[in-house]
Amino acid sequence: MSRDEIFDHLETMWSERDPMPEGLVERMQALVAAEVTMALTDLDYELMMLIERSADLAGTRGGAGTGTGTAYTLRFGTGDLDLLVRAGGRNGGGTTRLDGWVVPPAELTVRATRLAGSGADTPAEQSWEVEVDAQGRFELTDLPAGLYRLWLTPHAADAKPFGTPAFEI
Q1: Which of 14, 52, 96, 129 would you label with 142, given CA atoms 20 to 30 Å apart?
Q2: CB under 8 Å, gap of 24 or more: what pairs does 154-159 form?
Q3: pLDDT by residue (tens digit) across 52-110?
Q4: Do 127 and 116 meet the contact criterion of CB atoms below 8 Å apart?
């Protein structure tokens, strides 16, 4: 058997046993396009780093059979600011709830941006905004599935905005 035949057999086997997820190429293209767009802008922001991702407590509140799906927690950090985000599972309408906590609490506007091309129904970016309360909490409801990036803009004029890497909900 030639080398090319071996590779053909391997490709066929893995394509059958572990097929590429539907829409993966499109989601990756959207992510790269968003990164290129950010690199070409003059916006000076600090990128938060993903510190932790956890699904340990997923489903503990809703219980089985409630239609809430799964939930996971992401933790981002930069300098002296931490952001904890809990993405709730799908509800009956197919949307997700995003709860967040900023530590230490700060006067910020949070904008969730759904990246263009991250879903069949997303030809352009979509955004939702909310203010952080005095305890550092915020919530965004009814977010459709897709690739998101969060932007945290401090109310102080001299403060630098923060952005998260893209993540999928």
Answers
A1: 52
A2: 154/106, 154/107, 154/108, 155/107, 155/108, 155/109, 156/107
A3: 555 554 444 444 433 445 678 888 888 788 899 988 765 555 678 899 999 999 899 99
A4: no
Cβ atoms 62, 89 nearer than 8 A? yes
Structure token digits, residue 83:
């952001």
Per-residue pLDDT tens digits for 120-159: 565 667 889 999 999 999 999 888 888 888 999 999 888 7
**DSSP line for 15-84:** HHHSPPPTTHHHHHHHHHHHHHHHHHS----EEPEEEEEE-TTTTTTT-TTSS----EEEEEEETTEEEE
**Are 73 and 53 contacting, i.e. CB atoms less than 8 angstroms apart?**
yes
pLDDT, tens only, 26-46: 666 666 665 655 555 544 455
Distance CA 75, CA 32 (A): 22
Angle at 50 between CA 68 and CA 152, to 5 degrees: 85
119 secondary structure, DSSP code: S
pTM summary value = 0.62
- Give residue 81's pLDDT: 84
Structure-token pair, residue 70: 């799964």
Q: Which residues are CB-neighbours of 93 under 8 A, at least 6 positions away?
A: 142
